Amino acid sequence: MTPLRLVFMGTPDFAVPSLRALADAGHEVVCVYSQPPRPAGRGQQIQKSPVHRFAEERGIPVRTPKSLRNAEAQAEFAELKADAAVVAAYGLILPQPILDAPRLGCLNVHGSLLPRWRGAAPIQRAILAGDAETGITIMQMDIGLDTGAMLLKDAVPISAETTASSLHDALADMGARLIVEALDGLAAGRLTAEPQPEAGVTYAAKLTREDGRLDWTRDAAYVERQVRALTPWPGCWFDAPTPTGGVERIKVLKAELAPDPRKAAPGTLLDDRLTIACADGGVRLTLVQRPGKAPVDGAALLRGFALPVGTRLGDAACSAGN
């Protein structure tokens, strides 16, 4: 292995294994770029990103610019004289002068099998779409949105039990392994970047809280995938009617397909185990949470919440006005 002079650019937990792997492999990480500290948690205390904290533990200098578009930031980056920059869920757009500065360019650790799921939320979108597999692509970055030529790929299956959290962790570890391999191959001249095919391009749009609204008018398999794909962020939920005529937002943490549910209009509560009718089949909500309460199973929720069998939860969601 040829030790390289690297800049690492990343922010969330997903990026930490890659930074750790590069440092442990003997590369010289001369600087880390990460998103600026921001308020987080219940107390909204200013917190450094996971990558920022890890870099400080390793004694690596950290920079947290709000933008890389100005000439001063670009000059400071170029002065690092990096052989390569590694980018993993950084969160800032890299202008062309940044992409051009490192000798071997900027390499991105992307959480999908490109060109499928370019964009911000590839892990969640792959589960939500019912994909049979996803993976990691190590890409030579260009100015487009995840359009650069590919250096390495590896795949992981998506099963009926795969959640966003479990897939996130598996891909983070896979990305750490592949980025080390890619840098070794690139430095030794063994790897040639391959352009992405034009066929098969899809976009993983950024998630919003509204994506977590459970849509009973979809088939049950889709609703169950919603819960696996969108927990913990943005979180899944539905609005339930209260005895006073209002609505209460219920978070859904786990769900399963209901065996042989009876036919009913989408959104209908079918039994005392919190089974909800969908357009095709039904889902049983197995772990739910009321505001300010601890998570409980569906049956326990119904014992403490007046929701008679036959209640139309879909109607409640509409009347809540989002």
TrEMBL record:
The gene is fmt. Attaches a formyl group to the free amino group of methionyl-tRNA(fMet). The formyl group appears to play a dual role in the initiator identity of N-formylmethionyl-tRNA by promoting its recognition by IF2 and preventing the misappropriation of this tRNA by the elongation apparatus. Keywords: Protein biosynthesis, Transferase. It comes from Azospirillum formosense. (6S)-5,6,7,8-tetrahydrofolate binds at S112, L113, L114, P115. PROSITE patterns: GART (PS00373). Its EC number is 2.1.2.9. Residues 206-305 form the Formyl transferase C-terminal domain. Transmembrane segments: none annotated. Signal peptide: none annotated. The keyword Ubl conjugation does not apply. Belongs to the Fmt family. It comes from the Bacteria. This is Methionyl-tRNA formyltransferase. One of its GO terms (molecular function) is methionyl-tRNA formyltransferase activity. SUPFAM superfamilies: FMT C-terminal domain-like (SSF50486), Formyltransferase (SSF53328). The lineage of its organism: Bacteria, Pseudomonadati, Pseudomonadota, Alphaproteobacteria, Rhodospirillales. The keyword GTP-binding does not apply. Pfam families: Formyl_trans_C, Formyl_trans_N. It is an enzyme of class 2 (transferase). It catalyses: L-methionyl-tRNA(fMet) + (6R)-10-formyltetrahydrofolate = N-formyl-L-methionyl-tRNA(fMet) + (6S)-5,6,7,8-tetrahydrofolate + H(+). Residues 5-183 form the Formyl transferase N-terminal domain.
